[in-house]
Amino acid sequence: MSEVLLSVSGLTAGYGAIEVLRGIELEVAAEEIVAVLGSNGAGKSTLNRTISGVLRATNGSIRFAGAAIERENPAAIVARGLIHVPEGRCVFPNLTTNENLDLGGYRRGRAGRDRNRERVFEIFPRLAERRSQRAGTLSGGEQQMLVIGRGLMAEPKLLILDEPSLGLSPLLVEELFALMGRINREGIALLLVEQNVVQCLEVARRAYILEQGVFVLNGKSADIRDNPDLKRAYLGL
Amino acid sequence: MKGASLAHIVLVIAALAAVPLLTASNVVLNFLVVALLVALVGQGWNVLAGYGGQYSFGHAAFFGTGAYVTAILQMRYGVNAWIAFTLGIAGGALVGAAIGALAFRSGLRGSYFALVTLAFAEVLRILASVAPVTGAGVGILIALDLRPQAFQFQGRVPFYWIVLTLVAVSLLIVRLIEQSRFGAWLVAVRENEDAARAVGVDTARVKLAAMTISAAITAAGGGFYAQYFLFIDSGIAYGPWISIAALLAPIVGGIGTVFGPLLGALVVKTLGEIAKLVTGDAPGLDLVVYGGVLILVVAFAPQGIAGLLTSLRLRFARLRSSPPERAHG
Question: Which residue ranges make up each domain of chain B?
């Protein structure tokens, strides 16, 4: 296994007096795909918000590429190459596809931006067809591709994808997960935070199961899939 | 009008600069000076609201600070008028940064931000109406001293050149912002603040910078007002009238465009004059026109006159290109 890219330890976070995450331990190696699975209200969004710096951790440490980032603001964390792709098609609706992508890559200069845009279009050819269309007029699937593409524009080391399959048709979900493998093969680590268990476990190497703010299970995807506790705990079977 | 080129700006300013060569009418010049003043103040508002999406109802706070600093430094401390004017701009920027820091740090958005800016302007107005240094309820009269070095002139033409220069500078600043990375970030904040944060925009800093620039431009308008009319009181300097003028001009002209505030100021002021003419100075009727125009614009041309022109141009271009090519979906 290659070097550890992201390492979260003893993480506690929440809103005011309400503690949502308790003692989270999480590791993502460089060029690895890891899934965090959990139902609604398990604390997935809080975990994302804390790692990306939107929410301050109340305790514990978050290290990324060798640096402690738990006290940094979101902009500084993005500059380090940890990109959070928020859930819910978080596009700039009145800007074109191209403009949306460019906003993701401003730190890379003009040449880098043009190069990265072409790379994004290679991965998502559909975005190339829509390059001068307003992002608000794209379909749900295209918007999801756009926000992922926008994340790629920053040349990330780690991409955190927040519920990328939410609200997409099964066919699109299939396509999206296939593309994740493609993105990963370019050397980008992925942290998938999802409700979609089956597909996540197919693409991810390892997975963590989040329940009421603690990881109740973690391990190789294959082991988790066969674990009877998963079905009982998570699927309620 | 979006993406206005340098040539456009030069052309528009040159056309306006030609006016005093064509007419010496004080009525025309006075009208244009006031319209350009509103354009300047509105351009300040446009930076923050038009590009940054942060709607302020309290730009009087910056206008008034610019005006009061300009007047007080001259009359109470004997500072040269031009230096006082410059410090007035700095003072306005400082007030903008302070209000911005407080409002944005507390995460105020949308109507909450608007209400807080309104409250700050009102607090300043009330303070200015009682504090001895501002002349309290009496206001401040700037002593007549008709020399260029005192920022006072015999006729209106020099004032016209000065306010036109200020407008030209504000147009250039906004164009510069539009083309810069900062401008792209500002628009990103306007379009979707969460998405902006996700792409690594330091949203708090971008908004604060926009508010500071915005306040400085509007404060320049306040300082100019003080020198032009040589009298201010709390109702003039910090009154809601100027906050409304600051937002009405860009909304009518085209919010988030370089020329919107200038266009809107000219249109609104012209309508106001026509209304005064028609109604024979019935008090307040020009304000009714203000309200009417605002309602009409919001209802039928939310992108303002500039937006209307752009869509007309697009429609025209589409008619000319043989097969009506329409983006699907």
Answer: 6-321
